[in-house]
Amino acid sequence: MTKIFLVLVLLVFNVLVATSAGNFNQDFDITWGDGRAKILDNGQSLTLSLDKTSGSGFQSKNQYLFGKIDMQIKLVPGNSAGTVTAYYLSSLGSTHDEIDFEFLGNLSGDPYILHTNIFTQGKGNREQQFYLWFDPTKDFHTYSILWNPQTIIFSVDGTPIREFKNLESKGVSFPKDQGMWIYSSLWNADDWATRGGLVKTDWSKAPFTASYRNFNAQACTWSSGTSRCPSKSPNESSWLTQSLDSTGQERIKWVQKNYMIYNYCRDTKRFPQGFPPECSAA
Ligand SMILES: *[C@@H]1O[C@H](CO)[C@@H](O)[C@H](O)[C@H]1NC(C)=O
Ligand SMILES: *[C@@H]1O[C@H](CO)[C@@H](O)[C@H](O)[C@H]1NC(C)=O
């Protein structure tokens, strides 16, 4: 508790604007793909592509420690079977933290799977998977991560789909000490992505392309051990203390009841000795 308080005090006193209404040129570097990733429209949009030779990816210039981070993504249309579009936050090293969205492609007309996971101190195995309630290839949709000292909330178009609360009091580690970069990549994973690897990538349909726009981060940036947070009005930094209100809890229940297709917290085969501690409190 005291630790969280200290972190908050540090955050509040470190005044420097880190809110950015995204420009891909300013906020990101293309990290791989030999020309297959492109920043377009003066930084207003970005595309990743994948062909038989290579996928592609980009990474944020900043490291972040807490924030409300939104990205609009339009996924690979048509036959995207075998492809994976990953969008995630991660730090480095064997005890890294990570917050993942991964979109598993499918045959035309068959549903994508939104795969999520959370690593803390290098330990993951917290998969939850969902179908979406819309076709994510027809238009851009907003995928958000709210990450503050109390909780992590994954949202899709403003609807929360998953929460990972800070349960350090129950011995579950929580990401709060390591800055994370934002990463995204499009690659071939036809050994597992679609129907568990049964459906392979159809390379006659390549190149496969995913598009990004309207990146927005209300976030604290992290650099050599120092956190810098937005010094806007208290309202605008309310993400720092935000938690799920009752409407949010109803929405999460709705999503989990109607669209969740896998939850590690219900996988008795995998955890015959009992579920991880965060499962009972989630
Ligand atoms: C692809 O479509 C099949 C058939 O509807 C479905 O079982 C599967 O969950 C879908 N998604 C992926 C990524 O395999
Ligand atoms: C901050 O929020 C309060 C309550 O929601 C509202 O009354 C006030 O006008 C807001 N202030 C600003 C600067 O937006």
TrEMBL record:
Residues 1-21 form the signal peptide. Its EC number is 2.4.1.207. Keywords: Apoplast, Cell wall, Cell wall biogenesis/degradation, Disulfide bond, Glycoprotein, Glycosidase, Hydrolase, Secreted, Signal, Transferase. The active site is at E98 (nucleophile), E102 (proton donor). Its main location: secreted. Glycans are attached at N106. PROSITE patterns: GH16_1, GH16_2. SUPFAM superfamilies: Concanavalin A-like lectins/glucanases. It is found in: Secreted, Cell wall; Secreted, Extracellular space, Apoplast. GO terms for molecular function: hydrolase activity, hydrolyzing O-glycosyl compounds; xyloglucan:xyloglucosyl transferase activity. The keyword Cell wall biogenesis/degradation applies. GO terms for cellular component: apoplast. InterPro entries: Beta-glucanase-like, Beta-glucanase/XTH, Beta_glucanase, ConA-like_dom_sf, GH16_AS, XET_C, XTH. One of its GO terms (biological process) is cell wall biogenesis. Contains at least one intrachain disulfide bond essential for its enzymatic activity. Residues 18-212 form the GH16 domain. It comes from the Eukaryota. It holds the Pfam family XET_C. Catalyzes xyloglucan endohydrolysis (XEH) and/or endotransglycosylation (XET). Cleaves and religates xyloglucan polymers, an essential constituent of the primary cell wall, and thereby participates in cell wall construction of growing tissues. Belongs to the glycosyl hydrolase 16 family. This is Xyloglucan endotransglucosylase/hydrolase. It comes from Malus domestica. The lineage of its organism: Eukaryota, Viridiplantae, Streptophyta, Embryophyta, Tracheophyta.
